[in-house]
Design brief:
Blueprint (H helix, E strand, L loop, with lengths): L36 E3 L4 H33 L9 H37 L2 E3 L9 H24 L9 E5 L2 E5 L1
Antiparallel strand pairs: 1-2, 3-4
């Protein structure tokens, strides 16, 4: 009789330990107590979409400003036939806006691409993220100093800037209210 096969077969996909953290390109290991995030790559598509919307919004502002300027010039112009026609103005405005949106989007996307290239060499930008637990030690010291100076200033102002009593007027205190007698 054959013994039943009790041998455990090897897992075809063994679980491996995650790779150790890589050192930054400058060779320094990240400091464990330094809070913050590192921006190492920018998504080109999101930069292109965002910059297109921003350029489009700026284009709308430009169109409104140009339209208002055109109306004011038309209103102030004594000879309406002397200036360029409104059709020419609208055509120029439309072409300018299209070039602005396309060029602005292309430049922002190119800048993001070059940032991605540079961040591969330098490790990206380190952003410090502030805790929401409360103010830092520097902020606490600054607020204490501000309060101390404000109190000193109020005391000085109260002592130095009291209203002067005119000559011939007597002031008496009546139930916490100042009154004047002639």
């Amino acid at each position: 009789m054959m013994a039943p096969e009790t041998a455990v077969q090897a897992d075809p996909f063994p679980v491996q330990d995650p790779a150790p953290p890589l050192a930054s390109p400058s060779g320094a290991t990240p400091h464990p107590s330094r809070p913050g995030r590192q921006l190492t790559q920018v998504d080109l598509w999101s930069v292109a979409a965002t910059s297109a919307l921003v350029c489009l919004a700026l284009g709308v502002c430009l169109a409104v400003a140009a339209s208002l300027t055109w109306v004011v010039i038309d209103f102030l112009n004594p000879k309406p036939e002397a200036g360029p026609s409104p059709v020419w103005g609208l055509t120029f405005l439309t072409v300018t806006l299209m070039v602005e949106v396309l060029l602005g989007t292309a430049l922002a996307t190119a800048a993001a691409y070059f940032y991605n290239l540079a961040s591969r060499c330098t490790g990206g930008v380190h952003l410090k993220v502030r805790d929401t637990e409360g103010p830092s030690a520097v902020e606490v010291r600054t607020l204490r100093e501000y309060r101390r100076l404000r109190t000193t200033l109020h005391r000085y102002a109260a002592a130095r800037l009291r209203p002067a009593t005119p000559v011939g007027v007597q002031v008496r205190q009546v139930a916490g209210v100042q009154g004047a007698e002639h």
